[in-house]
Amino acid sequence: MRTIFNDNSEMATLKIHKLILLLFYSGFLLLSFPLLAVGSTFVVNSEGMVLKVEQVAKGLGVPWGLAFISANILLVTERKGSMSLLYLDKGTKVTLKNTPRVMVGGQGGMLDVALSPDYKKTGWVYFTYVKEVDGEGATVLSRSKISKDKLIQWQDLLISNSTTDTGYHFGSRIAFDGENHVFFSIGDRGERPTGQELTNHAGTIIRLNLDGSIPDDNPFVKIKGVLPEIWSYGHRNPQGLAYDFATKRLWSIEHGPRGGDEINLILKGENYGWPVISYGKEYWGPVSVGEGTQRKGMQDPVKVYTPSIAPGSLMIYSGDVLPKWKGNLLSGALKLRHLNRVVINKAGKAVKEERLLESMNERIRALTQSPEGWIYFSTDSGKIYRIRPAEK
Question: Any idea which residues carry the catalytic annotation?
Answer without folding.
Answer: 169
